[in-house]
């Protein structure tokens, strides 16, 4: 009996030790984004990190790195695919390099407002693509409720119709849907990292960029650009991604904290950005930028259809719109 009691006691101690070790287990996510520290998204990512740390009792820590401090976006995505404990703020255009259909979210005039962007989470077609990213490419989409606002063409001359972009080299991220969208709308796309835009404009490697208002104020791009042309050609929906292998190694409660707080912080940040865009526009007017509002949006919408046709995404687009009741 004494030996049995000793064995039982030892097992109890062992179990308690294992539970204590599990309770103390912790994880760190190094999260990278290309935007500067003054951008609303950076503050939103910090809020996400704080909430996750609080909800998990400090078991999951998110360290946020702005201005591509961990490296360029494409390199980080490859690290994610290899299982590294890194995350990245990205877009459907880049994810379309792995699952082509998902790129439609980044196409011309695809999503009209942030409410439609949030509703994408209920699309069976979108969910299928997200699972394909995880299962076949090792990329786990944590959430995509981060809406950066409508993108416009920023140039040094007025643009009111697609033909006004003829001959202009416009900076774009290096992804097919993005480049074909800008080409369809009338300009010549030039792939360039976000951090190189200012010097690219100074050296005349590009003639303009397509961005949101807050990008312009945060990076002082009004110093090298004079006109904001309100085409609103893309409502940029951002995706927060991590490694599927790393995510799968988290306990379910930690996974839930990561994803649920991502959605909450994203939707709150999207609302903040909606207000910030108007403030940024007013600031640019104060700085002397000309706002071109009399844009032929119908002509731009019609021109944008070609991007879906060229990339063979017309059917994929129709499926998502049908899911959304459009």
From TrEMBL:
The cellular location(s) given in this protein's UniProt record come to: Periplasm
Q: Which GO terms describe its biological process?
A: transmembrane transport
Tell me if Phosphoprotein is a UniProt keyword of this record: no
User: Where does the signal sequence lie?
Assistant: 1-23
Q: A cellular component term (GO) from this record?
A: outer membrane-bounded periplasmic space
Alphabetic keyword roster:
Periplasm, Receptor, Signal
* Main location, first listed in the record: periplasm
Q: PANTHER family under this entry?
A: C4-DICARBOXYLATE-BINDING PROTEIN, PTHR33376
Question: Which protein is depicted?
Answer: Tripartite ATP-independent transporter solute receptor, DctP family
